Amino acid sequence: MNLFRKIFKRDTTEKLRRKQEEQLPADELFAQKFTENGGKFIYCTSEIEVQEAFRSILKELGLYVKMSSNASPTIEAMFEEHTSFFSFPTTDSNVYLTDCEYLITSLGGIMFTSLQMKHRKMNELPDTFIVFAKTSQMVKDISEGMRGLNKRYPANQKPTGLVTLQSFFEDPEKSSIATYGTSNKKTYLILLEDLTN
């Protein structure tokens, strides 16, 4: 009888947690899940705040930052004044500055394609990521992200190498069973609010 009570209590607790998550706004749910997964989350309401956040991250990382980037138009436009910081080849760098395709709110994960990863495998990229994204890139789950990719890219230009990074712990031992077998990257996310109420 005691066993049934424990199972019922655990089931009830899980349902309550899911219901609370469903009531959270998408950006709050994402931030909660992302930080639970070990990520460092910085929310910005202006491009000036993005620049300040970027400088703070560089300061936290210290003197020996060798940064590369995916050199996307988004990254080059947003971080134009800092291009001298991310001029190292990917193979020689220890920090990778990139944008992403989508932020998966249900997982607290970040969806990348070969465009962001420069056609490399995740384990061939530096161990520390700085990701720039906008709130309009938030989607509920991977399926919604896939539908978005299908709409955004013509059939003959669809990117390959789809990866959803969802473990951001420096120590892989801290990862959960849900992220077993996936890459770990120490990840800073600079999120810019671009949706108006």
Summarize the structure in words.
With 197 residues, the protein is α/β, with parallel strands linked by helices. It has a single domain, classed as NagB/RpiA/CoA transferase-like (Rossmann fold, 3-Layer(aba) Sandwich), CATH 3.40.50. The chain has five helices and nine strands; from the N terminus they run ααβαβαβββββαββ. The protein has helices at residues 2-23, 26-36, 47-61, 73-78, 142-152; strands at 40-44, 67-69, 95-98, 102-104, 109-112, 128-134, 138-139, 163-165, 186-192. The strands form two sheets. It has a five-stranded parallel beta sheet, sandwiched between helices. A four-stranded mixed beta sheet has the order 7-4-5-8. Strand 4 (102-104) and strand 5 form a beta hairpin. The protein is globular. Mean pLDDT is 85; it is low at 175-181.
Total domain units:
1
Query: Strand portion, in percent?
Result: 15-25%
Strand line-up of the largest beta sheet: 1-9-6-3-2
CATH topology: Rossmann fold
Q: Specify the overall morphology.
A: globular
Topology summary:
Blueprint: H1 2-23, H2 26-36, E1 40-44, H3 47-61, E2 67-69, H4 73-78, E3 95-98, E4 102-104, E5 109-112, E6 128-134, E7 138-139, H5 142-152, E8 163-165, E9 186-192
Parallel strand pairs: 1-9, 2-3, 3-6, 4-7, 6-9
Antiparallel strand pairs: 4-5, 5-8
Protein name: L-lactate utilization protein LutC
Domain LUD: 29-172
